[in-house]
Amino acid sequence: MLPALRLIRLPNLLIVALTQALLYFGLFLPAFEAYNIEPVLPPLHFLLFVLVTMLVSAAGYIINDIEDVDIDEQNRPGKVVIGHAFSAKQAYQWYWALHVGGLLLALYLAQYVGQLALAGLYPAAALLLHLYSTHLQRWALAGNVVVALFCAGVACIVWFAERAGFAQLADLAPARAGQMGGIVTWYLVFAFLSTLYRELVKDIEDQKGD
């Protein structure tokens, strides 16, 4: 894989995109169409929404690699990108470019739905990911919980974005809304617990470098 794609964890970003697309196109949109409910984000704008999620995630991976470069040299020699394919300065340039692009898209989408305050979720997520890389991952369990919450949040943010349509569905077809809510809730629990377990295992495997 090309170094730039390794730096932003392309396979992980594709999983993020696939998760959100399956929820929107496979679960929410068919239910909305069945009851003539307009989604808050039509398909094209939803794809921009997915791109925003991918951009903040990619930037989070970059800042994590910048902060962990010495540790990764011990734990994963031969797989480190920063200091080899890219300098730390170049990585920071990528980091800020992704954040600026993501924030501009978030502002556009927030304006499109008429709730400009929602754009504040983007810098909040970016700040939390930055704090994770610089501080929280060094605290016992705290960093693991943050990562698990973000993985669950990939699905939760779709539900949040379409909460108005879901509320209409709950009024028109409470049984179907309940079924959908149950599916998403169980996925959130699974994503959180499986990610938390994976992060704990990674901490054990990386104990020498850490």
Keywords:
single chain; 0% strand; mainly alpha; 9 helices; globular; 210 residues
What topology emerges from the helices and strands here?
Layout: H1 3-7, H2 10-34, H3 43-67, H4 69-75, H5 88-112, H6 121-134, H7 142-161, H8 163-172, H9 174-205
Helix pairs in contact: 2-3, 2-7, 2-9, 3-5, 3-6, 7-9, 8-9
Computed structural class:
mainly alpha
Q: How confident is the prediction overall: mean pLDDT?
A: 90
Tally the helices: 9
Total strand segments: 0
Helix percentage range: over 70%
Order of helix and strand elements from N to C terminus: HHHHHHHHH
Could you describe the largest sheet, including whether it forms a barrel? none
Strand content: under 5%
User: Kindly, what is the distance between the CA atoms of the first and last residues, rounded to a whole number of angstroms?
Assistant: 26 Å
Which stretches are poorly predicted, pLDDT < 50 over at least 5 residues?
A: none
Given the C-alpha coordinates, what overall shape results? globular
- Report Rg: 19 Å
